[in-house]
Amino acid sequence: MAKQSNILSTEEARLVLLKSQGLLNSGFGKGKNAVLAAIQHLGYVQIDTLSVVARAHHHTLWTRVPDYKENYLNELLAEDKTIFEYWSHAASYLPMSDYRFTLPRKKAYAEGKSHWFNQDKKMNKYVLDKIKAEGALQSKDFEHKRDGAANWYEWKPAKQALEQLFMEGKLMVAKRQGFQKVYDLAERVLPEGIDSSYPSEKEYAEYLINNSIRSYGIVTENEMTYLRSGLKSPLNKALKRLLKEGEVIEVKLEDVKDMAFYTTSDKLKSIEKIKTRNDVHLLSPFDNTVIQRKRVERFFNFDYMIECYLPEPKRKYGYFTLPVLYNTNFVGRMDPKADRASQTFYIKSMHFEKNFIPDEKFNSAFVKTLNAFATFNGCDKIVIDKANGKWKKEMKKLIK
């Protein structure tokens, strides 16, 4: 149980974080409604293009909703309009109920901020006018053949304009066709009755604080503004106010006493009720739980990074390693590859932490999750390439 002095042990902090992240008996339920509940609780789910295994947004949701199906996201986006695409700390699916809190970022782009590249205002106007006149379009709808001997296609400026107008909030993603965005005017995408009032600085700061504590359980002040600029002063003011009112409380960690963390009394009271199980989770590198690497190292003593952006000679664990969470500990890294053509799921390499020795309980839990993950990736065969010899032999006895 949490100590009255509000000093938490590492294990207590882990329980709060993992429970808040939906990794300990999430309670989201089943089906599409559970997917919406997960997104609303987490605050965002990051979108990523890498498809070594199921893309990050699908993987993250499958981890918390075991009967997840990939079509659920597009249904929630295009039909139900209960989620939308925009930028959190990165491109993400967000709950539609949080729409108004994306307006400050959109205002900054509309007032001149550029999204990665210089603006072409003529192209922006051309793209916007074309969508106004013709309806929802993809970037490929702006391809045009250029005159000249080479006869090459030039569409990149239009794609840049689409992204800029999307960041400004003039366009929204109406749906996805495959993995391609279909853009339309924001007013034609937004559902009726959506609150689009511009949040005050106080409202926005309190939103960030409450969102962070709800989804992570225990957070630092810096983590509340992760990859967001210009918010430290208003957030600090809001945090002080909420502390004074008792809505938020400050806690310390036994092993990190020089740093302040924030949570709520309800989160602390819930610690003794949190039940753990010897479950294994194979997390996406972009999963909400591990995306802030410093927090993962602080709470779990797990130094994790994704190595696909490193030159191959500098990789230690593999191209796309997945953190392996066992109960409340990160115990290893699995480098996978789903070969959908042959329906074969490869473990290219498996690395365990130095202080962890896999036993029968772990192996059983691991295989259960591995089989389910392989099936989710459209694979019915599992092949282990590189791993500890004894463990590899045990796995061969257990995998389907």
Please provide a written account of the structure.
The strands form four sheets. The protein has a five-stranded mixed beta sheet with strand order 9-10-11-12-13, covered by helices on one side. It has helices at residues 10-20, 31-42, 56-64, 71-79, 103-110, 121-134, 156-168, 186-189, 201-216, 221-224, 232-245, 265-269, 293-300, 360-376, 389-398, and strands spanning 7-8, 45-46, 83-87, 91-95, 171-177, 180-185, 249-253, 256-263, 280-282, 322-326, 329-339, 344-352, 381-384. The protein has three domains: 7-95 and 199-273, no CATH class; 114-189, Winged helix-like DNA-binding domain superfamily/Winged helix DNA-binding domain (Arc Repressor Mutant, subunit A, Orthogonal Bundle), CATH 1.10.10; 305-398. With 400 residues, the chain is of the alpha+beta class. Helices cover 38% and strands 18% of the residues. The protein is built from 15 helices and 13 strands. Helix 14 links the parallel strand 12 and strand 13 (381-384). Mean pLDDT is 92; it is low at 150-154.
